Amino acid sequence: xxxxxxxxxxxxxxxxxxxxxxxxxxxxxxxxxxxxxxxxxxxxxxxxxxxxxxxxxxxxxxxxxxxxxxxxxxxxxxxxxxxxxxxxxxxxxxxxxxxxxxxxxxxxxxxxxxxxxxxxxxxxxxxxxxxxxxxxxxxxxxxxxxxxxxxxxxxxxxxxxxxxxxxxxxxxxxxxxxxxxxxxxxxxxxxxxxxxxxxxxxxxxxxxxxxxxxxxxxxxxxxxxxxxxxxxxxxxxxxxxxxxxxxxxxxxxxxxxxxxxxxxxxxxxxxxxxxxxxxxxxxxxxxxxxxxxxxxxxxxxxxxxxxxxxxxxxxxxxxxxxxxxxxxxxxxxxxxxxxxxxxxxxxxxxxxxxxxxxxxxxxxxxxxxxxxxxxxxxxxxxxxxxxxxxxxxxxxxxxxxxxxxxxxxxxxxxxxxxxxxxxxxxxxxxxxxxxxxxxxxxxxxxxxx
Length: 449
Description:
2 domains; four-stranded antiparallel beta sheet; Methylamine Dehydrogenase, Chain H; disordered N terminus; 449 residues; mainly beta
């Protein structure tokens, strides 16, 4: 475990800038006063309203060596590939236009690939094949379990189960312990042996995946990138680079449908909280597709959203605040905000496009009305939607400190004007960030805890 980042220094500027410093027992926080950024109504992106804020410089211990299972090196001799063409995070000289203070309170060298926050527990899927459970926000380790040797690609957690996707293109289901227990045990692996044998001898249960090569339709044949769980209907959805998503009945642990959804790899799948039970998928073909349930276990395509000009890598919906709003992050460096035109029609409009990342947006997370985004530019941006139904956003903070692309993020509200952000990067580290921001007139984030 590495030491927290503790020293923040205001770099001298030729122009005056307002600032104030507050201290705590652990470290000092520098609060910069600057005007927020607003979305250009023409979808041209964000533009600063005031002069640029001063740059910050901080000292930190570099992360330990390691490597990502995807073949992306994390050792010291290869870190230059992460840093170019961007400035070093340890000597920042980038204009920051934010209105929040932030502090990296903890750095772990654990090679986490995926994060999932459930209550006050943070679940991390590691490249070693283990799942490590931490108590937030200080992250003492509560439990560690797994199968080892099979890196975890995606993880999803419900009140009583954990679902993990592994390098062998299979899904493991784990039972969460009781409130006073710490032992997690493996329940089943999907597809099950029973389901496999049911389909093995039937010729119509095979699909063509490559020339002269067929595979059972119940199996993914490439990396599983995302997992979504419908706890009400007891259905599990898995998306893969094999261009399909599959639906699993958790009552009998059978695969009930396999959908060839896109013309390229599927990078994300999420479920809508609205009554129709919509499913959203995002793909490297640059499209977002909306699926609706035809029956309890069958889905059909409802509409296709086209607004990105590159791969779509991440999706997000906010169940409590604006459930009809969809966020998508793409390799065009944009976060598109989609609003449903009418609750009676499956029609969406592109309401805003948030620009600020300098390389592809890889992950999204939310808490209350806050949204955070992680990118290949090694940065994490924290956004707030202003008003209940407005299309104006404020970039509250730009979190800088990772030395590799940010692969997964999670966040939680800690008070009326602060939140915690958890981030996992290809530099092999997981970081905890404390963000302090001004509460606006419409703030109601705390009620989402």
